[in-house]
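We emphasize that the prediction below concerns an isolated chain of 239 residues; any contacts that depend on oligomerization or on bound cofactors are therefore not represented. The input was used exactly as deposited, without trimming of termini.
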Amino acid sequence: MEVAIKGLLFDFDGVISSLMGRMGWPFLWALRKAKPDITRDAVEKVLFKTGEMVLAERKVSPFFAFETMLKIANIEGFNLFRKLQFMIQGGVMYYKSKMNIIPQPQANETLEQLSRKYKLGLVTTAERNVIERAFLKIPSLKKFDIIITREDCKNVKPDPEGIIKGLEGLGLHASQCLYIGDLPSDVLAGKRAKVKVVGILGEFESFSKNHVSLYKPNYVLHWLKDLPDLLRKIDGENF
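Result of the prediction step, given as a token string:
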């Protein structure tokens, strides 16, 4: 018989909060500023290719924003002036948007519901000040039993350090927890920590499905709001 799930550990960006809101729109804005005549199709193609490359990476770099802007600039084939213009404007807008917290559909309500039955924890590469700001938009985060941010770990995902600390904070064994993430690095970190992993497709379903599924999470959902139904199914299997 399967061990009952007693705790849930979550990634933040792309799972609870919109990744596009904090990181995608600044790049889009800077792209249009650097090349005003760029077409909608070209913009979508650039963002699609960049998203594929980001999702294909096994590790999220601390210099994620800079490296992503460089990838976009190289894909579009900017000359040196436009590349510098894009990098500078993208960097400024990214800094301004770091606190732009946009909850995923029904995220707050879903977490509120889950907090009544499960221990909850956050394991994210976002900075603690971002999460503290998120309390205003997603108050259910205040009910989390443990919050692990970038400042709390020496190693970022796919290293399992953050998830292991999360398990210790919840006082649970790996078999009693699920980790919910949206990137290959999340899936790898969860597997290395010996927890079952739920892969969230979210805003980029069209191409995240292939990349996330490649690393074989135990379950795949479109949105966080679908998690309670999955847990009811898992609980039913445990009887």
